[in-house]
Design goal:
Blueprint: E1 2-8, H1 11-20, E2 26-33, E3 43-44, H2 52-61, E4 66-69, H3 72-77, H4 79-85, E5 90-91, H5 95-102, H6 104-113, E6 121-124, H7 127-136, E7 141-145, E8 154-157, H8 160-172, E9 183-187, E10 193-201, E11 205-207, E12 212-218, E13 222-233, H9 240-260, E14 266-276, E15 279-286, H10 294-297, H11 305-314, E16 328-336, H12 352-356, E17 361-365, E18 368-371, E19 374-377, E20 381-389, H13 392-405, E21 411-412
Parallel strand pairs: 1-2, 1-4, 2-3, 4-5
Antiparallel strand pairs: 6-9, 7-8, 7-9, 10-11, 10-14, 12-13, 13-16, 14-15, 16-20, 16-21, 17-20, 18-19
Helix pairs in contact: 7-8
The chain binds adenosine monophosphate (AMP) and glycine (GLY).
Length: 426
């Protein structure tokens, strides 16, 4: 009888929980803090994902056998170290390995040292030095906050003035607090982007099926960057040849490099890749599942997710065979009108019960709450609707059938998730 705690409360955690429910080994699932939709599949616990001590106390007192961390902040803060100190089993990297997401300066240096392909860069902690460097650089140029910035710390600058304004925002005005006191300035790369999430047990790294994310708010990649407006899996451009090159030049070398540095990585390494004309390069590492990539990757997993998590913690990933379904998935995010800027909350969500009748549609809740027995909107990204089909076209069609069943006031979604385009980053 396994009691599992999942830390986080978005669509990603909902997708993890729905997959864990399929495991015969898992009996009870708790989620901290969870959300209204998750409360239908797990017992939600009112503890913030960053309140590490309270989470560890909860795991001890409720005799939780295994904890899975979905979100980045607690990992970067050291939740795994605290749980391990108390003898609690937990899936995720320790603080010294989660730094691959927590510090871009660190991850760039690691890639440089171990010859892992990535954009050329320099790191600065002095504003004037950074400005002088910009003046000598080719345009466009990319300015990145070193630390976590809710996915908003990357600025692509077309002119020197724009780059100086970006540096000022990060380093002087401290728009993202301490995260911007150091910056990485890097070469602008072009090419389609692919997300490959992978399981890692410290030695062995096993990539999952590929996915692509649409980050901009509006169709045709217009509007502001968001946390992700939709995803699909597999990627059309991630060929077996590219996958092999990534395995040999990026995935294995990253796991080896971390081990060599005494930062053994157990958990999920998310490789944000750009397929450039010079081959695949790393745009970013994350130390956790992607959101909303998870909502298209996990439904395609055939094997028992809980067994894989255990193998990662036990260092036995090479002993198990991870199987995927030969199908495709597409996820469309239903957002509150106005997101990623200001938006209203509290609208009733209709039609979810229609989606529930379909076994080729999954509804993952991100920002919902319950009021008078009804789901209401409670965040920018409200719900992810995933369609599963035999191929991508089918999956996309099914996802949009699901979208058509759901309704709330000021609902906004992209109509071009998964649409095939040439020369565009999707
Ligand atoms: P990140 O938060 O590092 O994933 O960056 C957000 C987005 O900025 C990426 O998905 C890319 O579309 C873009 N980006 C980041 N770095 C570069 C780069 N060196 N060249 C071009 N685009 C980039
Ligand atoms: N979908 C991008 C991320 O999870 O970072």
């Amino acid at each position: 009888m396994m009691r599992v705690l999942v830390v986080g409360g978005g669509g990603r955690e909902h997708a993890i929980i729905i997959k864990l429910k399929e495991s015969e080994k898992v009996d009870e699932i708790y989620c901290a803090p969870g959300n209204a939709g998750i409360s239908c599949d797990a017992e939600c616990v009112d503890i913030k994902a960053t309140d590490i001590l309270a989470l560890a106390d909860f795991a001890e007192s409720r005799k939780i056998d295994f904890t899975v961390v979905g979100m980045d902040d607690p990992l970067v803060m050291g939740i795994v170290d605290e749980f391990e100190k108390r003898g609690l089993r937990i899936f995720g990297p320790r603080k010294n390995a989660a730094i691959i997401e927590g510090s871009k300066a660190f991850s760039k240096e690691l890639m440089k040292k171990y010859d892992i392909p990535t954009a050329k860069y320099e790191t600065f902690d002095d504003f004037n030095d950074a400005c002088s460097y910009i003046k000598k650089s080719a345009l466009p140029i990319v300015v990145k906050a070193d630390g976590l910035a809710l996915g908003k710390g990357v600025l692509i600058c077309e002119s020197i003035e724009e780059a100086e304004a970006a540096l000022k925002q990060l380093m002087i005005d401290k728009k993202f607090g301490k995260s911007g006191s150091k910056v990485v300035i890097e070469e602008f790369l072009t090419g389609p982007e692919v997300s490959v999430l992978s399981f890692c047990d410290g030695n062995t790294v096993v990539p999952m099926v590929s996915a692509q994310d649409h980050k901009r708010a509006f169709d045709n990649d217009k509007g502001l960057n968001t946390g992700g407006m939709g995803t699909f899996s597999p990627s059309r451009i991630y060929t077996p040849e590219i996958a092999d090159a990534c395995m040999e030049k990026i995935f294995k070398p990253t796991a080896r490099a971390l081990k060599k540095e005494g930062r053994e990585f157990k958990g999920i390494i998310y490789f944000g890749l750009m397929i450039t004309k010079d081959g695949p390069k790393v745009i970013e590492y994350n130390a956790r599942f992607g959101d909303p990539e998870t909502q298209v990757v996990l439904p395609r997993l055939e094997s028992d997710l809980f067994e894989i998590f255990e193998a990662c913690v036990d260092g036995t990933l090479d002993k198990i065979d991870i199987k995927w379904k030969d199908n495709a998935a597409a996820c469309v995010i239903l957002a509150s009108g106005g997101y990623p800027e200001s938006y209203q909350k509290g609208f009733v969500i209709d039609g979810l019960e229609k989606c529930a009748q379909r076994d080729d549609i999954y509804v993952y809740h991100a920002g919902t709450a319950l009021k008078d027995g009804k789901f209401i909107t409670n965040g920018g990204r409200v719900i992810g609707v995933t369609g599963i089909g035999e191929n991508l076209d089918e999956a996309i069609k099914i996802a949009y059938e699901g979208v058509g069943m759901v309704e709330f006031e000021k609902m906004h979604f992209r109509r071009d998730i998964g649409v095939k385009r040439e020369n565009i980053n999707s």
